[in-house]
Amino acid sequence: MQRIALPRLQHVVRILPRASPVQQRRFIRSRPVLARPTPPQSSQQPPQVEVDKDAIKTTVAETKAPKYAVVISGTLAGLLGLYAVALLLAAVKPCDNPAVSDPAQQKDVAARYDSTADSFDSEVGFSEIFMGINSKRKWIANRCLGHVLEVSCGTGRNLGYYDISKSPVGKVDSLTFVDLSPQMVEVCQKKWNILTGRKLHKLKPGLIVRFATASALGEMPLAPTTPAPRKYDTVFQTMGLCSTDKPVELLVNMAQYLNTDNPNARIYLLEHGRSHRDWMNNILDKSAEKHAEIHGCWFNRDITKIVEEAAKRTGLEIVVERRQHVGTTLFFELKSKTVTKPKIDSPPPVDVEQEKSKGWFGFRKSAEDLHGHPTESLRSQSSTCMDYEPCLDFVAGTESFSTSEVRLKERMDCQR
């Protein structure tokens, strides 16, 4: 019998896996899970959402809008680029006609304003706002004082800037607007009616405003002063030397209406003309003829030369000269070199009967006062104006405009 060799006990123990100690289980009591209540089901069906097809189309169009904006902006940029190139070429090459800036060789285009009076404001409105011309008009008009004569008034683009208020008391006593074009004067008068129609009570008492169709190269109405008409304390013109075929003669005639007795009397000019840069003058010269045919003005004239020539002929002194916009916008302030002292005449003989008819403080008595009856009213203020046909006049505190014949009219501004 064969013996079977048994392994030792220690080897058997090594081969058997070690048993892990028995762990005691912990029993965890869990809370019962409550069921969520189900919402009551309504018998009504939910509303059906209607799809707005127009809104969908609008949304689609909005998504396509940026593409059109890019195309439009690109087109505008291209046009501006072409315009800049054209200006550059015009600035580099001088004009072939050197006499295009000579007023003696230029065509008279003053009659052009008769046909453009109604649309003139819309044509120049944007450019004047863009260049700040309106602020310059206001600055100059606020400097006007006394009796003011505005030559080449046009459609009255300076009407709203004069100091004619009642409180504080304005510096302007009267306004006389003169222009060669009757259509322009008519538009100017209508504009005055619109501006002051509801503000008559705010105007300076006794203010006289007149409108006349006349040439600044000829005779113009004198200032409405008492006891006799005399010259003006301020003569004002904007953009007028570019529209006449005789600019020097026009300025010389304007100087004849300046009151040299007043040391503060001034002539104010706001003009546009030739620049002090050659490249800018080349651009102006090449487009001057076309601009004159459309707008009725030659904007390439040497305004400084014109003003200096007129000052030599009349004895005026250029007090201020300013340039803006590459020298194309010019402002001038002129005054008389010699101030003449007014002659003091002997007083007229005193009328005894007239002196007796006067009451306290020089007021004239009424018929009741002369017979010993109490006075009902006194006229405290009067104004007299000389009107020439077709001059239109307005006196603050009285009736509105009236067309006058060739006669002397007396208007009383009554204050009770």
UniProtKB/TrEMBL annotation:
**Which GO molecular function terms does the record list?**
methyltransferase activity
Looking up PANTHER family in the UniProt record yields: METHYLTRANSFERASE, METHYLTRANSFERASE TYPE 11 DOMAIN-CONTAINING PROTEIN
Q: Does the keyword Transmembrane apply?
A: yes
Does this UniProt record's set of keywords contain Nucleotidyltransferase? no
Transmembrane regions: 68-92
Q: Which organism is it from?
A: Zymoseptoria tritici ST99CH_1A5
Which InterPro entries did the record assign? Methyltransf_Superfamily, SAM-dependent_MTases_sf
Q: Where is this region: Disordered?
A: 27-51
| Name assigned to this protein | Methyltransferase domain-containing protein
Question: What keywords is this UniProt entry annotated with?
Answer: Membrane, Transmembrane, Transmembrane helix
